Amino acid sequence: MSLAMGGAAATSAGTAQAADTLLSQGKAVTTSSTENAGTPASAAVDGDAGTRWSSAAADPQWLRVDLGATATISSVVLNWETAYATSFKIQVSGDDQNWTDIHSTTTGPGGNQTIAVNGSGRYVRVYGTARATGYGYSLWEFQVYGTAGGGGGGPTPTGTPISAYKQVSASTWEGANAPAAALDGRTDTRWSSQFADNQWLQVDLGGAATITGVELNWESAYASSYRVELSDDGTNWTTVHSTTTGKGGVERPAVTGKARYVRLFATTRATGYGVSLWEFQVFGSVDSSAATAPLLSPPTKAPGTLNQFALSAPADRAMVTSTRRPAFSWAAVAGAARYEVWLNVSRTDYDFTASGNLLDLYTKVAEPTGTTYAPSWDITDRWTYKWYVVAVSGSGAKTTSNIRTFSVYKPDVETVSDGVGLVNGARDLNKNGTLEPYEDWRQPVETRVSDLLGRMTPEEKAYQMFYNVQSFPRSGWHFGPAQPGDLHDILLSTAATRLGIPPVSAGDTTAGYQTTYPLQSTLGASKDYPLDYQLGDMQRKEQLEVGARGTLSPLAEVGTKVLYPRIQEGGGENADAVGAQLRALVAGLQGGPELNPASVLATVKHWPGEGAGGEAGIVYDGVTIKYHMIPFRAAMEAGAVNIMPGYAGSSFLDPGGPGAGDSAKILAYLRQNLGYTGLITTDWLPSGAWVNAANAGSDVMGGADPGAAGFTMAGFQQQVPIARINDAVTRILRLKFQLGVFDRPYGDPVNGPYRFHQPSYVALANKAARESNTLLKNNGVLPVRLNRGDNIVVAGARATDGAACCIWSSYFHPNYGSQTTLEAIRARAATAGVNVYQDSGPAPKLAVVAVGEPSYTHATSWPNTQPYLPADQLALIRNFKNQGIPVVVVLTLPRPIVISEWNGLADAIVVTYRGGEEVGPATASLLFGDYTPRGKLPWQMPRSLDQVLKPGGGDVQADSNEKWDLPYDLGATDAERADIRAKIDAGQPVPPTYGNPLYQYGAGLTGWN
Asked: How far apart are CA 715 and CA 738, in angstroms?
């Protein structure tokens, strides 16, 4: 029977195999309800059988997909999770209002159903009327097959859109439907304009591009008349497609050409609303050569012999502000056949394990035959470029020039509605119509610092040393993270101050901003330092999107004390490995070997190394301090310019003295012995300690509120000498000018959030979790090789604990559908036809018991002196083992614990640490053998509690059986400890072979046998 209703036609049919084209994947989808943020409607059309939509536990419920245009529907595939529908309908509609049934059943079997249908419409809906379980409805995938119709206009473009996540602008936008929503690859977000004609959306492809196609995925408010335009400069436009008969849906106008900018210009609306796009995708390729330095060599140190001939231009210490392609020249060398130009460009592939300043590593960028070189690529903004030239004779003999330095700074000066105008292309920060030296970005940093310092009152200077800018706009710092709009408002408020000095926002984003990667101890299990750099770089990019220019991380702490709660935040027990990790993370956060206008300010902590004792006190001596200084020196070699002293004092550096932040002796060691010249920011001290901290040498009072009870800024100025204030504020201003925040103080609170959590970022987080996951033992039960229809039980306190992956402010993962261990195993098992039950189930062939310590920060979740599984978690392992069921223990391990009591019960142990938002899927993939394990323990694991503590002992040095400042000494003899000390004193690596732990540092299987 056929009929027509609401523009949709349909007939009913039976079950058949899916045919024709998959029309629904990635399309816009809506639903009656969702169970939680981890099971969104979009998961049912994402092509991933490991993600799912689930509804509220009620009838009826529906899921509707917008195909973008009218299509002929031939079949529908429903891949149900265990919560399926016994009664449901498949419906189509042409207008999303009037629906026609094309399939109906009251005996739905669940599982994977392929239903042949015959109908047409733009919208397709599964409408559930009766549930098979007490839960809601849940679909792994909802797939609609058929033949596309509608807008058409050209072949489906191939490849990855070159417009995805690029910079975008628009004539207008409506509410939260920002322009960038049309470039985020998600068909449940959209750009919509105000209700008017002549609206446009423009994307900057980031470089000269060859464009092969455009796809417009319209929401119902489409344009009937529009044109597609191209431009090389964003000002002069050429029309390459124009229509007055736009049909909406998915349109693919035949667009080709070469340009950097692409613009959709909608001249006439089809509805009374504005115009609205789910996605605006441009296809082709982008030529990145103009923005990429030629890398003709690895990063290399300069030759030992220099000054054999002279460089000419740029002048030594020149500040280049007029071009990104300065001309290089040098004196001719007799007999030279060619020359090599070496420049310390920013790299991502440094050897982070090698000592030495990253700024002193050069790359060969050119091999001219003459004595000049004109770059064909843009040199990015940085303050310390160093270069030299090597003359090469016909026989291969080499002579080397002197080394010169220069800087490049050519900012795109920001203009927003903040009351600050431009004078001669620079922000008139004090709003007097005259360009002062501190406002002029063409001036050297030190000139700007000196000029601004001379204009500030003592009170204005003092405020720069404090936080809480949201209440005191003259303060220098903001404690984040904040919502993008809130942060933007705070930044705007500072523009209204007398001198317009911008703040820096920094928060405890210790493992990512909006994409959460594993903690440093977890990364210490993988030792993939190029990946660590990428993770820092990813965090930098996300923070720059919204103007969050600082982070209170990373930690330069070596975890040599088992009972130190924050051992989870440090990089493990190997100081050299922690140092390599610090070089990588700091360089990634900075986007290069020094702080620059595209950096996020890294705050290295907690000086002087709280891993050797904890926040109550540091116990190293004149020998072991050398071991704990290694990561701090490494961070400085990577260009770190902000260090945070912790709460702990040091019995060696300042016997009987205060905590590091207000200890002059501890801070003097940093400056005098390590040669540190950067900023010192205290941890969160009480207001009564701020004067002492400043007088001791701290420059910024971490988290300090000038409005704190009992504190006055006048009193602070009276008790802290002006010379000390000037010293601190000079460093603060220098850092801010180097960050470029005087010239570009803002992020993009409207569009920036749509560039968070990109698929490539999630892939990095997943890779980090995979590489860190450690297979500690395996009796042959892994990888899982079960038959279809077999059952697995997943149990344990951490199985459904989504927060255990992360700490501090890294709780953004639920917004993007990250999976718990249970959810991830269930999803992965479904692809193998294996059933997963929670806690108990019929005839399980395997039990996965997820145990370990919940999330915590300063203090452990379990009693600190009881580092072992609680009785209830241990009982779970024993219970399954007693039933004869093979047991895989998935251990959340933020710190070393004693596992001897159950180590023999487990058939396999997988250690996941604090693995970030992707630890669930990464662990499930490991269990099923999707990749080979490679993680290694970043600490020793104690054989017994008496290797850590005396019987009944507390967390005090007198009760400790381990040496808090020594690595690898669990169960070690006095002779072994003496040998460890001797190697540290001699500056030699300490091999992880000492003591008698249950598992040694570096333990972990790298195969399945």
From this structure: 31
Of 275, 200, 283, 274, nearest in space to 239 by CA: 200
Pairing of strands 328-330, 276-286: unpaired
Burial class (CB in 10 A: 0-12, 13-18, 19+), 165: buried
Bridge partners, 138 (sequence order): 54
Q: Name, in order, each residue with C-beta under 8 angstroms of 607's C-beta and a sequence gap of 6 or more.
A: 556, 632, 643, 644, 645, 646, 660, 666, 670, 680
Pairing mode, strands 112-131 and 85-93: antiparallel
Give the closest residue to 547 by CA, choosing from 491, 585, 629, 626. Answer: 491
| Nearest C-alpha neighbor of 388 from the set 356, 366, 358, 355 | 366
Give the whole-angstrom CA distance, residue 451 versus residue 154. Answer: 60
Identity of residue 538: M
φ and ψ at residue 210, rounded to 5 degrees: -100, 115
As a dihedral over the C-alpha atoms of residue 506, residue 510, residue 511, residue 515, rounded to 10 degrees, the angle is -30
Amino acid at 681: T
Q: What one-letter code names the amino acid at 390?
A: V
Amino acid at 974: D
Q: Which region, left, alpha or beta, applies to residue 448 given φ > 0 means left and ψ of -120 to 50 means alpha?
A: alpha
- Report the distance separating Cα 268 and Cα 453, nearest Å: 55
Distance CA 734, CA 752 (A): 27
* R_g of the chain, CA atoms, integer Å: 31
- Give the DSSP per-residue string, 570-633: S--S-HHHHHHHHHHHHHHHHTSSS--TT--EE-EEEETTGGGT-TT-B---TTTHHHHHHHHH
User: For residue 670, what are its two tokens?
Assistant: 């940093």
Q: Which residue has the higher pLDDT, 28 or 501?
A: 501
Cβ neighbours, 10 Å, residue 176: 12
**Beta strands 382-393; 300-301: pairing state:** unpaired
Q: Give me the pLDDT at residue 12, please.
A: 34
What one-character DSSP code corresponds to residue 974?
H
Question: 246, exposed or middle or buried, with CB in 10 Å at 0-12, 13-18, 19+?
Answer: buried
At 447-461, the pLDDT tens digits run 999 999 999 999 999
Q: In Å, how far are 591, 645, 685, 731 from 658, measured between CA atoms?
A: 36, 12, 12, 24
User: What pLDDT, on a 0 to 100 scale, did the predictor assign at position 815?
Assistant: 55
Q: How far apart are CA 1007 and CA 775, in angstroms?
A: 9
Share of the chain above pLDDT 90, in %: 89
